[in-house]
Please model this.
Amino acid sequence: MRWLISLLLIAGTLLATLGFARTDPREPGWQRKTQVNWPLALGGLTLMGVAVVGKIVARRVRPSVLEQDLHAGEEIALQRVRSWIEELVAGADQLRQMELDNEKLHVWTARIESLVHGPMAQLFAHRYALASRYGGAILSHVVAPVSEAERWLNRAWAAAVDGYFEAARAAAETAYGRLCEVQEQVQALG
Model:
């Protein structure tokens, strides 16, 4: 489907470009203005419009992994959310236990990045699917505290990079505490 959308967009761009092109000044009867070949221009713009609409429809039609799970069954979706939260808690706990100094800084910050861009990003990407199934309360009881934990992890990363290792450890500890609270909230859902 993607290749078809790309092909339509390219073909539409070429046709529209040809339709709005200036003529060669060496041609007999040349006029100094843009001459529009309306069939080509409108055909190209139509193809481009179809490609854009196709892209929008393709995004809306393709359900997310969590939405597929929600349709398959509530328990499967809840298990996926629990696994993301468990992964976050385990990662934050590892972060708390890791040594932090100039030599281990890269490993420490890479661990934070893997948490923020991994399970945390997955949870945020599926927040509306969660809200549609469990109601708006899930946003305040689960997603908001995870968002707060993300801010604490970002503070830990920034403090570590700036050389404030104690502040980084304190921020990581706070993030771990928030994630443990979220884990309890998620366990209470089922």
Residues 92 and 176 are 5 Å apart (CA to CA). The chain has a mean pLDDT of 81. The two ends are 38 Å apart (CA to CA).
